[in-house]
Structure formats: C-alpha cells, structure tokens
Ribonuclease P protein subunit p20
Amino acid sequence: MLPSGACFPLSQTNMTEARHAGMSSAPTPPPHSESGSLAAEMDPVEYTLRKRLPRKLPKRRNDVYVNMKTDFRAQLARCQKLLDGGGHREICVHGLGLAINRAINIALQLQAGSQGALQLAANTSTVELVDDLEPEDPDESGEPMTRTRNNSAIHIKVFYPEP
C-alpha cells in the first residue's frame, strides 16, 4: 500500500486496483455539534443536510477538476484541447470521491490517444469535507450543527516528457 501523497506511475493495471471511494457500507459517525449538544438527541428526519463545496487547490489554467455531472467526452475533449491547442506541456487532472475513476480514465484515454507520447504521475490525498445540518423547523429548539468527514482524492499529472 502506498502512503498518502505518494507519486507512482499510472498504468492499466493500476486502474483495476482503484477503489470506489465513498461506496462503503459502513455507517457514518454521528454529527458533531458546534454548540456541544449531544448527537444522540438529533433526529435525522428533522434536519436538512447541506454539503459545502470542498476546498479546491489553486486554479491554474492547466488544472482540470473532474466531476460526475459533466459528460465524460466533454471533459476528455477539454483536456485534449489544453494539451494540443492550449500551449501546455502538462495538465493536472483532479478527482474527488466517486470522480476518482473518471479522472483515471481520462488520463489513460489521453495517454492512449497520444500513442504513448504522454506520461502520467498520480498523487493521492485525503480531503476533509464539512456538512451543515440545519433544522427543518426553525421554531423548534434544534440548533444548526456541522459534521466533518474525509474523502479520497487523486491528482494526476499528464505531461510530455523532456526530450
């Protein structure tokens, strides 16, 4: 097992070893309250879950953040355009959670389309995400609470090697 943040070459065999992040059946821990009230008193039906956006890395012109909502071919075309017509010799493809597999697939498709001219280097990390739990009925005594959780992320450097 590689340590978090390790850099390793990506190949077809690494793709089959990639895990589906966020697909485990383990129960999530109870939410933590900012005000110190007991989590056992919280009824999940009475709260609305609002997921905050994750903290992003600095947005550079050659960064591509992959998600599951945008069409795969559109994201692949955007990456190809950056490498071919954008004047970039390298791009960084970022994937979070369920989008990890899609980020890996995009990088491998780019490499296959270049007939091996492109090389890949991947880093993994863990990102802390924050969820807000807001009471559905503001008249009740329920206070807003926050819950933190961890999610896996991948950052793949797709580049032309130096001649």
